[in-house]
Amino acid sequence: MPASPLALSTCWHADRTTDGAALLRQATDLGFSSVELSHNTRFNLWPGILAERPSSRAPRIDVLHNFCPVPVELLRPHPNAYEFSDPRPTARRLAERHSFATLEAAATVGARFVVLHLGSAGPRHIADPLESLALHGQLGTRNFVRQKISTIRTLEKAFHETWPRVEEILLRLGEKASSLGLRLGLECREDPREIPPDDFWDLLLARLPAPTFGYWHDFGHAAGKHWLGFLDHAQHLRRLAPRIIGVHLHDYHPEKGDHLPPGQGLIPFRDLLPLIPSGTHFSLELSPDVSADDVRASLSWWNQNRISPS
């Protein structure tokens, strides 16, 4: 079976240009036939994107990552600038309004998917002590396990208190997405306080109708949580496989972080890629610090290593 196409997320290069047409052309020049417009796609890039899209050389725009284009009032792009989980009604209305705008933008450019962050619950930086212990060789010690259990209990309680207001907004977005022929990918996040806690994905997805809603797996984020013991990466993929619709592909290393080119971190892709259902969308989501040569090498890696699901 041929390798599935790999899209390039414009998170890699959107900050380095003011020309939306050039943004798309660079993806084509690197060998990509499709792109994901990331949450750092500023509004001044939009006219060029629309002008270039009809070109025969332009890559397909398959995915938009909320919020896209960036809301004009924000001083810098940030996907969590407004959250569905915010206790302040005004902030939740802004999150909903700009998400609806992303859906409209996605329909305008013929995208199939919109990726959403769901918000957060619980104290900020609650997992920082666990990361510090792990980096100092105390992963799995009694002190580490005690703190991890306490952290999980705190986050689960906060999630239950927060979820109703998130679900209310998601269901309205789902109605709009369905009318536009879009699917909403709910992304696995790296910060344990971002919702949902990973043991609650089944509960959450059971309340949100397929095919409009699906799970969007982020390899780097899940790998970081696997390292800290919040989830088992392979088990997590097996459990959620029926609802996976998209993937952010990048590597992870505890000391270097994520958004690394595949093969430059510790993720066992050869074991994990076969667990992804066929037909799933893949976007390469690399740090802006990655070189163009490494972007090309990542695409070559993908074409050589993509394993057909059994």
Description:
By secondary structure, the protein is α/β, with parallel strands linked by helices. The chain has one domain (7-121, 154-305): Divalent-metal-dependent TIM barrel enzymes (TIM Barrel). The protein has ten helices and ten strands. The protein has helices at residues 20-29, 46-52, 89-108, 128-135, 142-180, 201-206, 219-228, 233-240, 269-272, 292-305; strands at residues 7-9, 34-37, 60-65, 113-116, 183-187, 213-218, 244-249, 251-253, 257-260, 281-284. Strands 1-2-3-4-5-6-7-10 form an eight-stranded parallel barrel, surrounded by four helices. A two-stranded antiparallel sheet has the order 8-9. Strand 1, helix 1 (20-29) and strand 2 form a beta-alpha-beta unit. Helix 1 (20-29) crosses helix 2 and helix 3 (89-108) packs across helix 5. It is globular.
Name some characteristics of this structure:
310 residues; alpha/beta; TIM Barrel; 10 helices; globular
How are the secondary structure elements laid out?
Blueprint: E1 7-9, H1 20-29, E2 34-37, H2 46-52, E3 60-65, H3 89-108, E4 113-116, H4 128-135, H5 142-180, E5 183-187, H6 201-206, E6 213-218, H7 219-228, H8 233-240, E7 244-249, E8 251-253, E9 257-260, H9 269-272, E10 281-284, H10 292-305
Parallel strand pairs: 1-2, 1-10, 2-3, 3-4, 4-5, 5-6, 6-7, 7-10
Antiparallel strand pairs: 8-9
Helix pairs in contact: 1-2, 3-5
